Amino acid sequence: MCGIAGLIHRGKSSKVGHELQGMLQALKHRGEDSTGYALYGDTDGKNFIMRFKVGENVGEGSTSVAEDVSVYDERKKIVDSYLNEMGAKIIKEERILPYSLRYEIEYNKKDLLEFSQKIESIPGVEILSMGKSLEVIKDLGNAKMVCDRYNLDKLVGTHAIGHARMATESGVDIKSAHPFWGYPFSDVSVVHNGQLTNYWNNRRALENKGMRFMSECDSELIAVYLAEKMREGASLEEGMKESLTGLDGVFTYFVATKDSLGMAKDTMAAKPLVLYESDDLVAMGSEEIAIRSILPQEIDTYDPFDGEVKVWQI
Amino acid sequence: MANIKSVSKKTKAQAMGMHTEVLTGRTQQKFFNPDEAENFYYFGTHDVDFNKRTDLDVKDMTAAEANKEIDNLMSQGYGTIVIKNPQGKHSLGVGILNKLNLIFEGSLGYFGMGSCDGPIVRINGRVGWSCAENLMAGKVVIEKNAGSCFGAAIRGGDLICKGSVGARTGIDMKGGTIIIGGDAGAFTGFMMQRGRIIILGDVGINLGDSMYDGTIFVGGEIGSYGSDAVDADLTKSDQDWLKRKLKVAEIGENFDVSKMKKIVAGKKLWNYDNLEPTEKKGAI
Predict the structure, then answer these.
(1) How much is the pTM?
(2) Around A65, how many Cα atoms within 13 Å sit in the side-chain half-sphere?
(3) Is the pLDDT of residue B224 over 60?
(4) A and B: number of Cβ contacts within 8 A
(5) Residue B52 three-state SS
(6) CB nearest to B128's CB, from A274, A298, A305
(7) Which residues from chain A sit within 8 angstroms of residue B107, using beta carbons?
(8) Choosing a second label site near A129 at 20 to 30 A (CA), which of A242, B78, B185, B190?
(9) ipTM of the complex in this document
């Protein structure tokens, strides 16, 4: 059991970090092994924001092996040198935690595949997100702990999706935490609640096509699956509709891009989702209490039906 | 089987074949005496007055605190309780085994009104998953939409949703009536064993999948039939019953019930072993 939440403001920006924190914290009983945020902040759109990690959080019940901080330092140095080699200029650098970093970088090439492959060829380094608006922040603990640790409360943006995880099929670590970046597509992220039963078949097929998996978490498949569909030329919505038959199992997932937010529910409707929709805001979550955390007044909500796909624009 | 009219009450159940073995150990045989029906009551129930009314604001309460306070108010004789600010909390109003007029001014989360027996409930909002699960008697009316597993395993009572409901409505239900004013999701009536479901709108795929018994009436389109769910003739008595039920439910009173579809179990999946334990031993 995990909890997912998402919101999109249409025609305005808001403190989406704070709002999503409230929504995910209301769902913490669904799992607090780890919590992740995919926040779409207001930026000038010129530079890429790269969130990446050079190690794991080894506290708080983590299944990861402890490493010395000097190992993280060494990896960071290699990342910096590789960026330099590829002509990417670091505009701003933040080391939020010894293992977690945020770079603003000037990089003019559109294809991020080569870029990502180069950076992730460094053992222990994973790009959590790459985009001109998207920032994926994920770590162990509940929503409030992660929000406080990364100071997300003040982040202003248009939309966001997040995940409160109860680890079931893979480790308690950051690499298995959601959201997953839709590698190598800029500004694409996914969160998922459910289980995928044809994970290995799909993974093998996608890996044969050159797609990359960083974890053994079945949810990562959705991000890779959609990225591959878009690489073949499908729109986000088309890819999501295909996923209803291409992915087997029970699932409700959200996917977000720079300017849109979508949801898909499997054909058995086995996983919960409650949705609120108005002219200027769409909010959704595994349970109504997530929506109530930002809209305490009486509102009309509903459960999307089985096999339903919806996409909203900012 | 013996003629049950000619035997004493004490041996009626045995005559009907319900007990063919003498139970030993700590188990005791108990027989229901219809003459004592009025003396049956749940431990801890209260004598309440419907005209005695109060409000309860649960905004800052946990579900357990709110439910305890409802019980406390019933112990003081309050028969009408209005719950303010439920704000989508889970498990509100569960386990009420009492006559009570309960009104929620807002929406409930999961498992609202679960395992109840007797109360009349109106929810002026939406309900989450598994509303009124295991309802045994009473009436629950939801003014807006409901989540999945609506009325799971209910054994009696009337469960009414004026909006639309999610998947698996009436799953495993064993009695009672579920009435939906809008649409219903996939697997409605999944493995239902008895009771009736009325859907005025459309219904999703696999309607009545693996149903053992019971009846489903659908006013709109059906996504697909589940395994062993088949059409049946809508009789005049069905239509009369539907009209009465919709009127009582304050929903679709002018609905043309003559055009509704009636779905029942094809009973091709039935594979009951009707041998009693003692007969099994003999067969072996």
Answers:
(1) 0.83
(2) 3
(3) yes
(4) 74
(5) strand
(6) A274
(7) 288, 298-299, 301
(8) A242
(9) 0.78
